[in-house]
Design a protein that fits this description.
The protein contains 9 helices and 8 strands. By secondary structure, it is α+β, with helices and mostly antiparallel strands. The protein has 3 domains: 119 residues, Immunoglobulin-like (Sandwich), CATH 2.60.40; 101 residues; 105 residues, Tetratricopeptide repeat domain (Serine Threonine Protein Phosphatase 5, Tetratricopeptide repeat). The protein is elongated, with a radius of gyration of 49 Å.
Length: 417
């Protein structure tokens, strides 16, 4: 049977009530605190303290601090007034009714909190999905814009090349026509000169006739020279030779020796590259990042931190989007006092755990704690950003010296009280 605590002390103001309950050996882990508007109970075996409050309080904003064998409560009154006494004088039947009513209120609040949490989780999932869809849409639009820009650029380059080719062809045609025109003009001038020489002779002597025939021959030779086509352009001819086959008798074949040499070369390359896992064949289980994460966890449990880091490194190379791999590797670096690497891994995990939602709150908390621990060990207390000690709100679940009043699980309470 629990021991009722009666040697408590209390003080009050017009807006708050302060209760100090001495409990020997009390700790945050063992104490079970239950508080509603009109009822307060602390169960710390073998001690039990309960009080039926004189007037309603605001249990959401109330606080409790456990330490030095004492539980100190700060209860905020709903109405500003001075109480005549702390506890009401009621009989056992009324006490039981108040207890049952308080438990029902706690159950309703827990149910409402669960429903609100489920709604918030659905909203977070919807928000995350919308954010991811928006990011993917932006990436797709960016890729489409890049493709369109490249297409426009290639089209412009092709049009410019075609225009350049067209101008080059036109220039060649113009140069060819000009050359033909000059050749025809030169031939016409030569023909006129020869005709003038033939007509200006004083006699029709045989020598002159012979000379005229010779001149005519020269004229026709010039015409033949001018009509000779231009030499062909220089080019290259590609020749492909048929491979020659030298059949070898089976007794003289060296295929087996060549295969053995290739096998030894592959083994030598594999032996030289054993420190790089990507360059040699992995086993089937070693290709699974989850299997490597579990292996690293087992090595961490045996305090083999370097081997655990190697397992996490290989898992990260296989899949670098799993935040737990960076968190676990940061824990190994903390053990080995690799503080800067621990900060880098914690920051990388926080970068992956975006956007911040309720589902990844636990992982983000671990990342902040490990990064803050590394900063504080480096004596960078501002970057560490640890909260100051003291009395924190009841809803603050990270402080070891604070205990929520209205959010305790009623399933852990003593059903007899």
């Amino acid at each position: 049977m629990p021991l009722q605590v009666s040697n408590y002390s209390w003080q009050q103001t017009s807006t708050a009530v302060f209760i100090s309950v001495p409990l020997r050996g009390v700790s945050v882990r063992d104490a079970d605190v239950f508080c509603t508007e009109n009822y307060l109970k602390v169960n710390c075996p073998p001690f039990l303290f309960e009080v039926f409050l004189y007037a309603p309080i605001d249990d959401e904003s109330s606080k409790a601090k456990i330490g030095n064998n004492t539980v100190v409560f700060t209860l905020h009154k709903k109405e500003a007034a001075m109480w005549e006494t702390l506890s009401l004088s009621v009989d056992k039947e009324m006490m039981q009714k108040i207890r049952e009513k308080s438990i029902l209120q706690a159950q309703e609040r827990a149910k409402e909190a669960m429903e609100a949490k489920a709604v918030a989780r659905r909203e977070d999932q919807k928000y995350t999905l919308n954010v991811m869809m928006k990011i993917e849409e932006e990436e797709r639009k960016k890729i489409e814009d890049m493709k369109e820009n490249e297409r426009i650029k290639a089209t412009k380059e092709l049009e410019a090349w075609k225009e350049c080719q067209r101008k080059a062809e036109e220039l060649k045609i113009i140069q060819r026509e000009e050359k033909l025109y000059h050749q025809e003009k030169q031939m016409e001038e030569k023909r006129k000169k020869l005709k003038h020489k033939c007509l200006t002779g004083n006699s029709a002597s045989k020598n002159f006739a012979t000379k005229g025939r010779n001149s005519g021959n020269i004229f026709f030779e010039k015409l033949k020279e001018d009509n000779i086509p231009a030499p062909r352009s220089v080019g290259s001819i590609k020749i492909s030779f048929t491979p020659r086959v030298f059949p070898t008798a089976l007794r003289e074949s060296q295929v087996a020796e060549e295969e053995e040499w290739l096998h030894k070369q592959a083994e030598a390359r594999r032996a030289m590259n054993t420190d790089i896992p990507e360059l040699y064949d992995l086993k089937e289980e070693e290709k699974n990042p989850e299997w490597l994460k579990d292996k690293g966890n087992r090595l961490f449990a045996t305090e083999n931190y370097l081997a655990a880091i190697n397992a996490y490194n290989l898992a990260i190379r296989l899949n670098n989007r799993i935040p737990l791999l960076y968190l676990n590797r940061a824990a190994c670096h903390l053990k080995l006092k690799n503080l800067h690497k621990a900060i880098e891994d914690s920051s990388k995990a926080l970068e992956i755990l975006t956007p911040p939602v309720a589902d990844n709150a636990n992982a983000r908390m671990k990342a902040h704690i490990r990064r803050g621990t590394a900063f504080c060990q480096l004596e960078l207390y501002v970057e560490g950003d640890f909260p100051n000690p003291g009395i924190e709100p009841v809803s603050h679940a990270l402080q070891e010296d604070s205990l929520p009043l209205s959010h305790q699980s009623y399933s852990q309470r003593n059903s007899s009280h």
